[in-house]
Amino acid sequence: MDDDNELLRLEKSRKLIREIIKKKGRNGIYDLTGLAGGFKITEEDKALLETYVGPAVYSEELNKLGLIHLRGNSKNHKVVGFNRTSSAILATILTIKPKKVVHYVPELPSHPSIPKSCKIVGAEYFEYDNVEETLKKIDEYTLTIITGATMDHKVINLDAMKEIINYAKKKNSIVFVDDASGARLRLLFNQPSALELGADLVVTSTDKLMDGPRGGLLGGLKELVNKIYTVGLSFGLEAQPPLMAGMVRGLESFNLQKLKRAFDRAKNIDLSKLDELNIQYEKTPTGFVIKKLDKNKDAHENEKDLIKVAMALLEDYGIVTITSVGMPGASKSIRIDLCSKDAERLSDEEIVNAIINSIKKVMKK
């Protein structure tokens, strides 16, 4: 889908959300993206949300809590805040200016912010879901990027992650892990953090699978993080005081048990009714994802159908998905995330029935 149509999709979904809230209030919306986040600032915080006072106060707390969350150590590592994960990725690539970027993704494609950032600096970009192909491209001129969990929540194989990191270190290649949701998802599989595995840099999103605002938390080797943050400041990519405060409160309130409850619910949810529709779907660690609605249609036609179903889910049931509200270039698979706060207000049966009815409405099944 081109950028113009992506924007039309966004505008339509936002209009639908406004109309639902006007009629039913916020309770008429069920955000099942897993990215709803939150903004848990206190009254005390509000007095500190000033241009220079805010960063002075919250940068220290963000570093302290970020090191705990990303399992770094204060001797070697530092954590800073960016406006978004994509902002941190852009700042990193602008700073390092690699000749080439080699990106391993558990399942293609990658998040669009990475190849687009590479294009800005003129770096060659290679993207693989195969470890051997990835290793062939790594040398001292390479920035090695690893995605810990895909946009559809497929988690990286730990042995593959270790192999790529260790090989890249031998080749003197900087290792940067895009752990936007993976920093938390991988905990469910008892995987070490990116920094514990030896990555030089890691970024995570404080709204993904946790109750923080949409912000990018960048951690890694102090000298490298300082250089990246300086570049970020010069382009206005850094987190501003209100966002920093929200990120701090989100990190404070992170509860792994809540994620584990969603993990258990996802394992037990009955999706057998979906089999009758002859669609392609699979379970994820915290829910499920619908990838194709008609196995006989090509990718472009399937994408259009997925968007129509997502819009029907929003219009008829108030269910928000990444397919309807996600950024341009994001996956159009319909992902249902049961760790979302709003998922607690819906039964498994209500969610499944809403999806079935929306598919039948669009596909005439």
TrEMBL record:
Q: Which domain of life is it from?
A: Archaea
GO MF annotation, one = L-seryl-tRNA(Sec) selenium transferase activity
InterPro entries linked:
PyrdxlP-dep_transferase_arc (IPR020033), PyrdxlP-dep_Trfase (IPR015424), PyrdxlP-dep_Trfase_major (IPR015421), UPF0425_MJ0158-like_C (IPR055177)
Q: Which cofactor does it need?
A: pyridoxal 5'-phosphate
Q: Which UniProt keywords apply?
A: Pyridoxal phosphate
Q: Which residues form the UPF0425 domain?
A: 278-347
Q: Spell out the NCBIfam families in the cross-references.
A: pyridox_MJ0158
Protein name in the entry? Pyridoxal phosphate enzyme
Which organism is this protein's natural source?
Methanotorris igneus (strain DSM 5666 / JCM 11834 / Kol 5)
